[in-house]
Amino acid sequence: AKTGGPGSFRLFDPAMNQQVVRRLQIHNALHQALEQGELQVFYQPQVSIASGAVVGFEALLRWNHPTLGWISPAEFIPIAEDSGFIVKLGEWVMRTAARQAADWHALGHNSFRMAVNLSVRQFADPRLPSLVQQVLTDTGLPAHMLELEVTESLALQSVTTTIGTLNACKALGVKLAMDDFGTGYSSLAYLKRYPLDSLKIDQAFVRNLTQDAGDAAITRAIVAMAHSFGMSVIAEGVETTGQLDFLRTLGCEDFQGYLFSRPVPPDEAVLCFPGYHPG
Ligand code: C2E
Ligand code: CA
Ligand code: CA
Ligand code: CA
């Protein structure tokens, strides 16, 4: 809200108060949401640029609150991260997504991966590798079909701890991807030491790929560097065929985005598998 001018100061800002109230409301409602089944996991297909086949899915949280309506994860995830509730929430998403993937596997679909987002908070917990193993055992999902998406903010922790946890997860046989690559803090020197299978190019770079020479250069550099480290590359937020064609010429392996599909509930996601015949 606009205040009176330089030097004037309002102790009680109604607009700011509204934000605080909204945050508190969401914070309080989130615990109930999990217990009362208001949360759902949607799945967004990941597609091979070369073959056009669906090679994976990213699990994304959705929340439909009975009175507040749909609340974006961009709004409630940061609140859950601040309070620490993200650890419980993230565990629920991992279990739900792994169970879904195991169900699809049981239907005969065996060449796809299920990617789940991991908060740094989850990553900081030394019990993470045993939790992942527990989820694999409980669901029966083959380890190589589960992928953990970590963000560059994990570089804010001790490097040896980070590498230790990554290696312990890797030893279980799961895949590791660096999410939102290029937007965060990671040093290229550390990147080389992380046992990553793939880099995800953030949609901030993909958005203007065909118009902005700078974004094109960054994307080209990320793909080249990933390949020289033996990692594959997936681009997120692909909305146009122009973007897809450009990514193809750069040698980017996979893409994800509205061009192919938005995140959808499981009964729609399963239709993405080749040769699916309902009934
Ligand atoms: P993210 O991990 O970078 O996920 C990609 C976001 O881009 C998703 O937003 C997805 O719906 C959106 N998106 C996908 N394709 C396109 C496209 O072509 N165009 C545009 N404009 N957007 C596209 P969403 O689902 O709203 O999630 C936002 C963020 O919330 C995620 O960003 C992730 O950081 C976080 N999040 C969502 N679910 C979870 C979760 O289970 N755990 C954790 N820790 N974070 C989550
Ligand atoms: Ca992600
Ligand atoms: Ca991302
Ligand atoms: Ca993002």
Number of helices: 11
Unreliable sequence segments = none
Major β-sheet strand ordering: 1-2-4-5-6-7-8-9
Task: Supply the helix-strand structural class.
Answer: alpha/beta
- Portion of residues in helices? 40-55%
Query: Main sheet, how many strands, which sense, barrel?
Result: 8 strands, mixed, barrel
Mean pLDDT: 91
How far apart the termini lie comes to 57 Å
* Series of H and E elements: HEEEHHEHHEHEHEHHEHEH
Beta fraction: 15-25%
Radius of gyration: 20 Å
Bound molecules: ligand C2E, calcium ion
Task: Give the strand tally.
Answer: 9
Shape: globular
Protein name: GGDEF domain-containing response regulator
Organism: Rhodoferax saidenbachensis
GO biological process, one term: phosphorelay signal transduction system
Keywords: Phosphoprotein
